[in-house]
Amino acid sequence: AGELGTCPASVDGVVVPDSTWTTDRGELPRGARLRLHFDGGRLVEIETREKDVLDALRAHVDSDANGRRVGQIGFGTNVAVVTPIGSLLQDQKMPGIHLSLGHPFGELTGATWTSAVEVPVLIRRPDVSVDGTVLMVRGRYTTGILG
Predict the structure, then answer these.
(1) What is d(CA 74, CA 5) in angstroms, rounded to the nearest whole number?
(2) 85, 92 in Cβ contact below 8 A?
(3) φ, ψ for residue 97 (rounded to 5)?
(4) 3-class DSSP state for residue 100?
(5) How far is CA 57 from CA 32, 53, 96, 113, in A?
(6) Which one of 16, 61, 79, 104 is most buried, counting C-beta atoms within 10 A?
(7) Which helix (H) or strand (E) holds 106?
């Protein structure tokens, strides 16, 4: 497999997802370019030129009190996976990060809150830092985290 995941305490910044992304209610239109802005672990702004995607995503995440909350964040660790194949469970193993809005998978992450919404988002070549430590640069793990 090759994935490490948790429910984060907070997520701040801008995420620009790669390629196709889905909701737990089905796939939104392909090709929509998104910029998702996060503050304090919540989605605070959605940017896209696609009004139908914007309306559908807003309606979906706002259908639950915790729908805009980042419920899961995962780091893909299988360096043998070099490109998405279109299967979310496999694509999440590719080096990079993914996060899910809504459902925190509390039975695995220890989160004490719930959500009926789940929107997975994949980012293949992110720059990632946690508490000032750089973990990834353009989707490649830094050697400094290995000890």
Answers:
(1) 4
(2) no
(3) -130, 160
(4) strand
(5) 11, 6, 23, 21
(6) 104
(7) helix 106-109
| C-alpha span between 34 and 51 (Å, rounded) | 11
User: pLDDT of 62-91, one tens digit each?
Assistant: 999 999 999 998 888 887 877 777 777 777
Q: Left, alpha or beta for 106 (phi > 0: left; psi -120 to 50: alpha)?
A: alpha
Token digits of residue 21:
């992304």
Q: Regarding beta strands 118-123 and 96-102, do their DSSP bridges make them parallel or antiparallel, or are they unpaired? A: antiparallel
End-to-end CA distance of the chain: 23
pTM of the model: 0.82
Question: Can you tell me the distance from the alpha carbon of 13 to that of 99, in angstroms, rounded to the nearest whole number?
Answer: 13
Tell me how far CA of residue 111 lies from CA of 72, 103, 105, 107, 121, in angstroms.
9, 10, 7, 8, 19
